[in-house]
Design goal:
This protein has 565 residues and is of the alpha+beta class. It has 26 helices and 13 strands. Among the domains are: 159 residues, Beta Polymerase, domain 2; 131 residues, cca-adding enzyme, domain 2 (Orthogonal Bundle), CATH 1.10.3090. Strand 7, helix 7 and strand 8 form a beta-alpha-beta unit.
Length: 565
């Protein structure tokens, strides 16, 4: 059947007018043109990799595997970065040992993945831990020899789960959904995407193994696909995003044949699960070249319809100069942090990208009569659902974003009682950096951000003085109380007013309603600030001092025991 189909594609036989090949099947057959390449070993004097850029734990993994009798190399993006003089962020190792064979060699090693089975070898603990990813050499298999499922990566999960024994599975369009067939290194190199990612480096012998001219392309600063680009994008549409990320990060040019199918194949990104695209977007924004990455995406028409978060931030329905300045400054600040070697977290930048969406919804809900904080909570939920979808279920990421947003009204309110509690929040620094960014683009007064920065950096005495100054200024800005009108004659039968110092007066004071002289001051010229007494509510059911009469104290806010306020 396959033979007949290929004959029809080649124009052989008599296919008839209605015998055109289904698009999905035609695409699957087109995935067979990947050259295996030729092994070339490059000595240290020729490749020039600086040993000081190597990671000790990655070298330790390679040494352990080789001492156990296996082949092992640093591979992929780490080799690419080493060749251009960059210190790799992550180190991957490739070996001819199976995941089970790798696992038994290390004390803390974990087999992960279903689509591609890998081993994570972990060194250290807590925040300082490091993970070296170890993969087994994979065989090159074209899609015509693989098991096929209907639908795509999004819709074929149930059918794929049933193929527990299948190691090589593709969907209806030829996209690889599972690839766990082990093979020799030469085939492992052929199945990688770009020539600059298909090199292997042995840190013990310092030999570089190159099958597809990756060293020459790295020196020429060119990104080139291995094999037919159209077929390779069909196997995995995310390669389009990876290509543009490398172009932005490395400043490499894209080889014309590699760039040509991007527009044609970009719609296939819609078949990729949201979670995977979300991870690729985070990588785009955290390489230290976020501004450049956005420019490259825009040049190739991938800002719309691929990444909802970026589309919301960079192509808003209601654009404004302030909004654009805020987003661009957030991207530039992230790049600066990476350049300085400081850590970056995706939650902060994502909070920046979606902030104005949250603001718009928040404002609309308040205009409809919703209280401020519940309105903010609803706005955040709405934006998560619309822009991020199932990613909002990622506990820590979503929680950090919410905390940054929920702190903003507290920063703006700036109460003496709440300053200390806000500054003690674990995510205070992220919330403050967000506030500072808002002030830098004119969304808030700069003085507000300066006050919080001084408070955060100040000593306990400095903080106490700042709070006292804030309290006095807030009290001074209050409108003075209007003098009370002359007392109205009491109706007949009303109990007499309590004399100062009398028992009735003492009871009224105990209930929280001081006599008139203590509230307003006993001397006309007394400039001392009036002390406000807190009312203590009596337990329910207890009557007032005057029985059925008014509550004791003329300034009372209502009677006890169910009397109207």
């Amino acid at each position: 059947m396959i033979k007949k189909f290929i004959q029809r594609l080649l124009g052989k036989g008599e296919p008839g007018p209605d015998a055109a090949a289904p698009p999905a099947a035609a695409e699957a057959v087109a995935t067979v043109t990947i050259p295996l390449g030729e092994r070339v070993e490059v000595a240290a004097a020729d490749h020039g990799i600086d040993l000081r850029l190597l990671d000790d734990n990655a070298v330790r993994v390679v040494r352990t595997l080789k001492e156990a009798g296996y082949e092992a190399y640093i591979v992929g993006g780490a080799v690419r970065d080493l060749l251009v003089g960059l210190r790799p962020k992550d180190f991957d190792v490739a070996t001819d040992a199976t995941p089970e064979q790798v696992k038994v060699l290390f004390r803390r090693a974990f087999i992960i993945g279903r689509r591609f089975r890998l081993v994570h070898v972990v060194f250290g603990r807590g925040r300082e831990h490091e993970t070296i990813e170890v993969s087994t050499f994979r065989a090159f298999l074209d899609s015509t020899t693989a098991e096929q499922v209907l639908g795509n990566e999004k819709t074929a999960k149930g059918e794929l789960a049933g193929k527990t024994g299948a190691r090589h599975v593709v969907d209806a369009s030829g996209r690889v959904l599972r690839d766990n067939v082990w093979g020799p290194q030469i085939e492992d190199a052929a199945r990688r995407d770009f020539t600059i990612n298909a090199m292997y480096y042995d840190p013990l012998t310092q030999v570089l193994v190159d099958y597809h001219g990756g060293l020459g392309d790295a020196r020429a600063r060119v990104l080139r696909m291995i094999g037919d680009p159209l077929a390779r994008y069909r196997e995995d549409p995310v390669r389009i995003v990876r290509l543009l990320r490398f172009a932005a990060k490395l400043g490499f040019d894209i080889e014309p044949g590699t760039a040509a199918p991007i527009t044609t194949m970009a719609p296939k990104l819609a078949d990729v699960p949201t979670s995977r695209l979300f991870d690729e977007m985070v990588k785009l924004l955290q390489t230290g070249h976020a501004v450049r990455s956005v420019e490259v995406l825009r040049q190739h028409g991938l800002l719309a319809g691929v990444f909802p978060v970026l589309e919301a931030a960079l192509n808003p329905a209601r654009p404004s100069a302030q909004r654009e300045a805020f987003v661009q400054q957030a991207l530039a600040n992230t790049d600066a942090r990476v350049a300085d070697g400081r850590s970056v977290v995706p939650s902060f930048l994502l909070a920046c990208l979606l902030w104005h969406d949250v603001q718009e919804r928040w404002s609309a809900l308040r205009d409809d009569g919703e209280a401020s904080f519940p309105a903010l909570q609803q706005a955040v939920d709405s934006v998560f659902e619309r822009r991020i979808g199932d990613i909002s279920g990622r506990g820590k990421l979503a929680a950090d974003m919410r905390e940054i947003w929920f702190m903003q009204p507290r920063f703006e309110k700036r109460t003496p009682a709440g300053a200390q509690g806000l500054a003690a929040q674990p995510r205070f620094r992220a919330g403050f950096d967000f506030l500072r960014l808002r002030a830098d683009v004119g969304e808030l007064p700069v003085e507000l951000a300066d006050w919080w920065e001084d408070y955060h950096l100040g000593s306990d005495d400095d903080r106490a003085a700042m709070v006292e100054d804030l309290r006095s200024r807030q009290h001074g800005s209050r409108v003075k109380r209007v003098p009370k009108a002359a007392p109205v004659a009491e109706p007949a039968g009303a109990p007499p007013a309590a004399e100062p110092g009398s028992r009735a007066d003492a009871e009224a004071t105990e209930d929280g309603d001081a006599p008139e002289s203590s509230v307003e001051g006993s001397a006309v010229g007394d400039d001392a600030p009036r002390k406000r007494r807190r009312r203590r509510r009596r337990p329910g059911g207890r009557g007032t001092a005057g029985g059925n009469g008014p509550a004791a104290g003329e300034g009372g806010g209502g009677g006890e025991g169910g009397s109207p306020a």
